[in-house]
Every structure is written in C-alpha cells, then in structure tokens.
C-alpha cells in the first residue's frame, strides 16, 4: 500500500499534511473528505511535488487553498435596496426635469414665433411692476437656496507618496537575513516567512526600517516616532512643494495610523513641525486598519462640507518597526512578511475657484462595517502570544469574512455608479432569483439529487468595467488580488496598478491605494472624465470605496515615487 499526502493551505498559508490511503472499495486511490465537500466552492486545488517513489509508482501532492467566496453569486437584497435608495434620493430631480421639458416643449411648440411673443406680452401686461419684481425676487431666492443646499464639491488638488531612501531597500533574501541577524527567530519561523515571501507577489525593491535587524526591542516610542516623522514629513514636504500651499493655510488635518498612537498624537506632531495655525481642526484616527485612508477621507469631506473656503490635508501611513512581531506564532508572523514602509498625503479643497487647478473631484464614498459579527471582529486581532509578544493575529476566517464585506460594499456602490442598463439587468435578475430561485432549486433537488443546481437561475454579474476606467484595489497580497480579479471579472490591465504596487512597494497599508493612483499617473493613463475606483479593506472588519472623477488629463508628474522604475512594469511582474 502506497502512502500519499494531501496538503491543505488555509488563508494564511499554513500547511497541513493529511495521509491518504487507497480505498479498499475501489482502485482509484481516492479518499472522501466530508468537510471539504461542503466547502468545495470555497477551495481551489493545485497539483505539486510530482515524483516517483522508490517502488516505481507515481506520487504527487494536492495543495488545496481557501479562496474568496464568489460573493456576486449571493447578493443580499437589503444592500441593493440601500444603494437604490441613494440613487433615487439624488436622482429624483433628473426624473422630474425631462417631464417638465416635454410639457413646456409641447406647449410652446404649437405656437408660432409671433403668437408666442404676443402671448408673453399679453401675460406680462396683466401684472403691475411690484408683482413682477416679487416674482423675480422669489425665483432668485429659490435658486440661491437650492445652490446653497447642494453639497459643496470636494476637489483633490494633488497628493504625494513617500519614497524611502535606497539604504532602506531590501530584497526578499536580505529581508530574511535581517530577520535572522536579529536573533529573534528560530529556523522554523524563518523558513515559514521565506515561503510566505515567495508566493506573496512582493518584489526585491521594497523598504523596511533598519531597526528590524536589531536584536533590541523595536516596538519603542522612540523608534515609532522616528519612523513616523520620517515617512509623514517626507510625504508632506513633497505635497506642500507640489501644491505651493502654506501649512498655515490648511484648516482641517486628518491623520490615520492603525497601530502607533503616541501622546501627543501624530496630528499634533505634524502641527508642531509645520507650525500650523491654532484654530486648525485636527483629528487622529487609530486602530482602524488598512481601509482607514478612505475613512479619513470621509471625515475630511464632512469637515469641508461644514466649513466653507477651506483646505484639508489627509495623511495615511503605518509604522512597520513598531508593529514588528518577534515571536513564533505563524498567524502573527504574516504581517512581518507583507507590510512595508510608506505614507501618503493629499490636499483637498472645497473652494470652487480651485476647480481648474484640481486633478480630481470626489464623487462617492461607500463604507461597510462588519464588527457586529464576532468572527469579523476577531479575524484581524492584536494580542499577545504565549511568550507575551504583541502582534496582529490573522484568523483563518479572514478570506470568508473579507468576501462578505466586499459583497456588501460593491452591492451598495453598484446603483450609484453602474450604467442604467447594467442596473436594470442586475436588479431584474436579482428579483427573479429572489422570487423563483429557491423554488427551482427545490425542484431540481427532487428531480436530481446529484446535481441540485443543474437548472438553477444563474446570477447576472454586473460589469464594473462599464462604470470605471481605472481600479485601485488595495494591494494586500497576490492571493487576494487574484480572487478579486476572478470575482469581479477584471482584466490584467485593470489589476496592473495594484499588482505593480504590491511588487514594487509591498503592502503599505492604508496608503497603498495612493501608490496605485500614482502609478496610473506615472503611466499617463488618466484622461479627463475618467472615473477611478479605490477600494480597501481592513480590521474590524471594514471595506470602503471611494470614487473619483478626473477633472483634466493628468500629465506625467515631475515628482512621483514611480519615476525611474515605472517603465519596467508590467513586464517584471511575470518574472
């Protein structure tokens, strides 16, 4: 009897080896695993380690990976209703306007020019001057009230992404050597991190702080403040240089950093460094994960809506050294492998006169929060291990929880951005499946137990490529990007910015989506009228989307983190 093995690779690449013996009931040497049968749609398989045993028989291993659930196959109707509520709320004026135009055209079109002028003159002579002036005043007041009640447009004047110095650049081999030289990891932990890096999609030019190679504790306030000042001031110096805006002109400041939250805060550190004005509205968001950049953007937008004629600066980053985990728990070693140095800073304005100098206007923000669910709340959880080392623990439920949050977010966003034809097909298919799908499934179950979904109604998957020209998907890992591409049916070109960012800069947490937009600008892909979809997700569990519309064609910037290396992409991704 030959002994074979099945490798089960869960969401964080932990490998389980299960012995499989040939079945005595048949000659196919297969084994039935009930748990996997129930989750077959959540798993993907690869054949690895082919070879020949000492007895001459062929051997191989099957790697089973848990993937994102096909969240477009099971859309919850209440989230579609929420999205359509937003659409109807803002689209009622568009529905009434064509009716008024048709009625007015029918009335005026039946009259000749002479009859029209005669009718206008006869109508106006009936009223005295006071009545006419009152009507004009009421009309002007109504128009003014409507204009004042409309939300102020929010413009993105420019943004900057910090590019660390070359002495902080490491290859994957150098990263492992730094970890080994620190003396904090045994060979088993080093080998695990090496395997993670090999399949991560991260290249050989990412940046890490020098402190991770030290044998001393890196999670100190001194190291955290040093790294924070390096990345934040680097991004802000470039932003103020590009926009020619003085720091004292900024009225709103929002800073987000999930792990490192000192006292005084990071926002206070920035105000102190740039000597900003005393009445600035400053906010410091902590513990909100890798999607906090869009949360900070949402807060800045609300502040600008309430405070006219103002500028807002949003700073997003994470401190790698402060979050460095020196223990042996494998689920807590994963952040070490993916997170890299980076920071973004963007300048927003609500001044209408800034329209011509702005790059983008903010169209939509959709936020999804799943913390009411215990599994979602604990899937990314900061805690101490058995040795009292602090780190982020990644749960095996992460992929499933993330898929559910993504499903909710894009379902709510869809009615706001998709063309009407896509909305009509999608909504009609959804209602049809909601009303008759279960009935068909029960019928199929009674007729054919082996294929219960043989004739079930297939869901209509909206084509988000019709709504957006560019996609900035949070570059968490290669596996996550692969599954998002498959579920949303995106092309390689749609995913190019995300994959390039992951390869060149690694996972820079909440600032990743801005490195991706910088890549699109460096490639000169942004044209006037293009819409950009930024989507990010993180602990909580949260999934957030932001939609931008390009006001003008964006030429290749003179300062950009991709200058000098952008021409190597996307070819280098296939190496």
From TrEMBL:
Residues of the FAE domain: 146-434
InterPro entries named among the record's database cross-references: 3-ktacl-CoA_syn, ACP_syn_III_C, FAE1_typ3_polyketide_synth, Thiolase-like
Catalytic reaction list: a very-long-chain acyl-CoA + malonyl-CoA + H(+) = a very-long-chain 3-oxoacyl-CoA + CO2 + CoA
EC number(s) per entry: 2.3.1.-
The protein's annotated pathway: Lipid metabolism; fatty acid biosynthesis
Superkingdom, taxonomy of origin: Eukaryota
Coiled-coil positions: 474-501
Gene3D superfamilies: 3.40.47.10
GO cellular component, one term: membrane
Location(s), subcellular: Membrane
Membrane-spanning ranges: 91-109, 129-148
Name of the top EC class for this enzyme: transferase
Keywords, ordered alphabetically: Acyltransferase, Coiled coil, Membrane, Transferase, Transmembrane, Transmembrane helix
GO molecular function: fatty acid elongase activity
Gene Ontology terms describing biological process: fatty acid biosynthetic process
Domain Beta-ketoacyl-[acyl-carrier-protein] synthase III C-terminal: 470-549
Pfam (any one): FAE1_CUT1_RppA
Similarity remark: Belongs to the thiolase-like superfamily. Chalcone/stilbene synthases family.
UniProt name for this protein: 3-ketoacyl-CoA synthase
Organism the protein comes from: Solanum commersonii (Commerson's wild potato)
